[in-house]
Structures are given as C-alpha cells and as structure tokens.
Specification:
Largest sheet: 12 strands, mixed
Helix content: 10-25%
Structural class: alpha+beta
Length: 348
C-alpha cells in the first residue's frame, strides 16, 4: 500500500470508530439508561449543576419561560388534614413527597424550581424526615412553620437554607378566611427573596425518558397510609396522567383542578417512632431514607416493580429495575409516596 493509501485507510477507520461510539451513546440515551434524554447533565447526582441546564432538572421538561431559572430548589412543607383540603399552589410543584406524620396523617413536601406559585397554603411545621429527604437537592431552601429544636438542628446540618416562619417572617401571611394554625401561606417569589443563595440550578434527581416503559398495565393503585390519608391513584387515558382520589372522591386543589402526576413513585420505607411528641403526646415518626427497599414506579399507565437504593444521606435515591438498571420517569411532575413497609399497596 502506498503512503497515500495508508493515510486514507487510517482516516476511514477513525470515522467508523466515531460513528460506532455516537451510535452507542444515542442508543443509551434513548433507552433511558444514560443521562437525561436531551439534557446536558447526568441524572441522579443531586447537588448543583455546573452549567445551566436546557431542561428543567426536576421534571425533564422544557422551561415555560425559555430558560431554566438559575436558582436552587425550594421545598415547602404543606398540611394534609382532611379539613384543610383543598390545598393551594401544589399544582406548580416539580416534585411532591407525601410522608407519614403523627396519628396516621400525612404531610407534603412540595419542591419547586422551574415554576412559580403565587400562593402556597397551608404551610405547617417540619419533621425529622424532611432534611433527610431534601439532602438530595443540594443547598435547597426549606420553608416550614418552625419545628422542634431537633428538626431545626438537622436542617442546619443538612446544609439547607432555612427560611422557616420565624427566620423569614415577612415572607409569610395569615389567610383571614381560615382558622389558625391552618392558614399560613407564602409564595415562591417571597420565599426566594427572603434568603441569599447561589445562582445555580440543582442537578436532576431522577432519570427521564420519552420511551414507552416495560411494566404491567394497571388501572389504579391504592396507597393506604390510614383511613384519613389512604389515597388512590387512577390512570386517565385521555390526559395521560395519574389522578388522585380519597375514598373515591377526587382530590382537588383550590382552583378546582384535580391532583395529578405524570409519575408516581411508591417508595416502601422503614418508619420508626422518635422520642419527639406532638401536643397530644403522640410520637412523631421518622422515615429511614437510606438503605434499600421495594419501589413501585407508575408511568404511562404501567407499573414497574423494582428497588430503591440510597447508601447514605450524601447519595441520591436511585430507582432500579430487576436487572439493576435505573428506571426512567416520563418528563413531567412526580409524586413520591414514602410508604411504610408494614402496610400494603393494592394495584388493580
């Protein structure tokens, strides 16, 4: 072979290698195994993004305002007693966690980043579960109506930006149409303005993909936290979202829209009783947010059964299928049920 021929052969070989590598990367992204589909940052790392992401990091969607806000996540603790429903502002949240608290009731951690909410109500006190969950979001802001000293100490240790009712009093208001303490509210604008924070977006918590998932088709699933807080998620084919019900009655927000989610993650966890009690002397439970356990991932009308894994509080919870691959969610909002391993969900 002439020297010119050898050069041509080398160039052709290099092009072939590059083509193979690109094909592998594209296939991995499409299958939801690699980074966030269409994103410029990896999934499931928490913390803050080094470069501005093109997609909302906590939903995988294109930002409505044209670009992702350069700001951390904002978590707000919201009450869920039957008498305070319907709640306000949660329809704008990227991710919502439902956690068990005293006497079989639940409360929500509503996490915002890409969207605004003019009113979030009713805001209530924090629990030890909250900072352990929010550790995954990096230096997030945490808005809550105060808490016992142990909770506030844990918030500081987690590195969260504490914007509770006492420290950021000007950001909170009382709704005269409702009774205290169930009438405290604020807004994303006021809460962000109440603290100093780095102008960077958080990294994704979940992996997202538009590929159709492999899993069992189901119509609904019952998540019985208790008689008062036992909710059911039903798949709606027309809107392609999961709709939430209590005792067969639609769970709605104050604007009349029904609570819905593109993804529902039922994370089966160990729940322990702490030495903290409420005003009635009822022990306050705490979710063990590390370790591993069963998980049910609902998306696109299907249920994928797998395992959640989080070795330490410094890690992000990963959702893994039976082959150990990360389970991708559908781009959109996600509802996470922190559900006790002493109870049983019922799909149908």
């Amino acid at each position: 072979m002439t020297s010119r021929g050898r050069v041509v052969a080398i160039i052709i070989g290099a092009v072939v290698v590059v083509g193979v590598v690109v094909g592998v990367v594209v296939a991995a992204g499409k299958g939801g195994i690699g980074p966030l589909a269409g994103s410029d940052s990896g999934a499931g790392h928490g913390g803050t993004a080094a470069e501005p992401p093109k997609l909302c990091p906590l939903t995988g969607l294109k930002p409505k305002q044209g670009k992702v806000p350069a700001r951390p996540a904002l978590a707000v603790k919201v009450e869920n007693l039957p008498q305070v429903r319907p709640q306000t502002g949660l329809s704008h949240a990227d991710i919502i966690y439902e956690e068990p608290v005293e006497a079989g009731i639940t409360r929500f951690i509503a996490v915002f980043q890409c969207s605004e909410s003019d009113k979030i109500e009713p805001i209530r006190s924090g629990r030890l579960t909250d900072p352990d969950i929010l550790d995954q979001f990096g230096h997030a802001l945490f808005a809550y109506a105060g808490g016992v000293p142990q909770v506030e100490a844990r918030v500081r240790k987690a590195g969260l930006i504490d914007v509770n009712f006492i420290k950021a009093a000007k950001a909170y208001h009382r709704d005269p149409a409702k009774l205290a303490p169930h009438n405290l509210y604020s807004s994303t604008k006021e809460l962000y303005a109440s603290a100093t924070w780095d102008r960077v977006a958080p990294k994704p918590i979940f992996l997202y993909s538009t590929d159709q998932p492999k899993g069992k088709k189901i119509r609904s699933i019952h998540v019985p936290f208790s008689g008062e807080s036992g909710g059911t998620w039903k798949w709606d084919k027309s809107t392609k979202v999961w709709l939430h019900f209590y005792s067969g009655v639609p769970h709605t927000y104050s604007d009349g829209t029904q609570v819905s989610a593109k993804n529902v993650v039922i994370q089966v966890v160990k729940v322990v009783q702490t030495d903290i009690t409420d005003v009635r002397g009822v022990p306050s439970p705490k979710v063990i947010a590390t370790g591993t356990g069963k998980v049910y991932v609902l998306r696109n009308g299907r249920m994928i059964v797998g395992t959640w894994s989080r070795p330490s509080l410094g890690d992000v919870t990963k959702l893994l299928d039976k082959q150990g691959r990360q389970i991708a969610l559908d781009p959109g909002n996600t509802w996470v049920e922190l559900f006790s391993n002493t109870l049983t969900v019922t799909p149908s």
